[in-house]
Amino acid sequence: MQKEFEKLSQQDRELLLKAPVLVSLLAASTDGAFDEEEKADAIELAHFRTFTAIPELQPFYREVEKIIKSQWEQLTQQYSPLDEMNHQALGQEVEEVNKVILKLDEDYARWLTKSLKSYAKHVSEIHRNFFEFFVFPPNVPGITD
Questions:
Q1: pLDDT tens-digit profile of 24-58?
Q2: Distance from CA of residue 53 to its chain's centroid?
Q3: Backbone region of residue 104 per phi and psi (left: phi > 0; alpha: psi in -120 to 50; beta: other values)
Q4: From CA 75, how far away is CA 90, in angstroms rounded?
Q5: Calpha distance 95→74 (Å, rounded)
Q6: What's the superkingdom here (predicted)?
Q7: Which candidate, 84, 83, 74, places its Cα nearest to that of 18?
Q8: 18: exposed, middle or buried (Cβ count in 10 Å: 0-12, 13-18, 19+)
Q9: To bridge 23 with a disulfide, which of 5, 29, 85, 120 should be the other Cys (CB 3.0-4.6 Å)?
Q10: Domain spans of the chain?
Q11: pLDDT digits over 58-112, tens only?
């Protein structure tokens, strides 16, 4: 485990490793369900982050990559059906992640927060990207205008 996590309890470490799944599920839940496309995207993104994240976060994402599939399955079962009560509980667990992040070194906390926000944004845009770029192609001056 990374030195940044040494001062955390085992429970806090486990919660941080679930964070990419939690923020992905929260972002994916905006349409009222979790689907296989969002799952595949979240898993693939965890893999990419093992070498595309800033060097300080790469070890974190290597640990996440080891458990993300099982965590996705466990947490989708835990928060299904995605009714108001489960959506609220999911949001509360993400709030707990934020509290744990505050226990980390200031720089590392900032990097991890930024990374998790971009992770959630990426997952939330998976359906939007299809429609934007294939159904409604971007405006290219001189070609589509």
A1: 888 887 766 677 888 888 889 898 999 999 999 99
A2: 13
A3: beta
A4: 9
A5: 19
A6: Bacteria
A7: 74
A8: buried
A9: 120
A10: 8-135
A11: 999 999 999 999 999 999 999 988 888 988 999 999 999 999 999 999 999 999 9
9: its two tokens? 């309890």
CB atoms inside a 10 Å sphere around CB 104: 20
Distance CA 118, CA 144 (A): 30
User: Token pair for residue 79?
Assistant: 């928060």
Angle between the 106-124 and 84-101 helix axes, to the nearest 10 degrees? 150
Q: Cβ contacts of residue 36 below 8 Å, gap of 6+?
A: none
Residue 62 makes CB contacts below 8 A (sequence gap 6+) with 50
Q: Give this prediction's pTM.
A: 0.82
Structure token digits, residue 93: 């667990």
CA dist 117 → 8, 74, 122, 131 (Å): 22, 22, 9, 22
Q: Is the peptide bond before 137 cis (omega within 30 degrees of 0)?
A: no
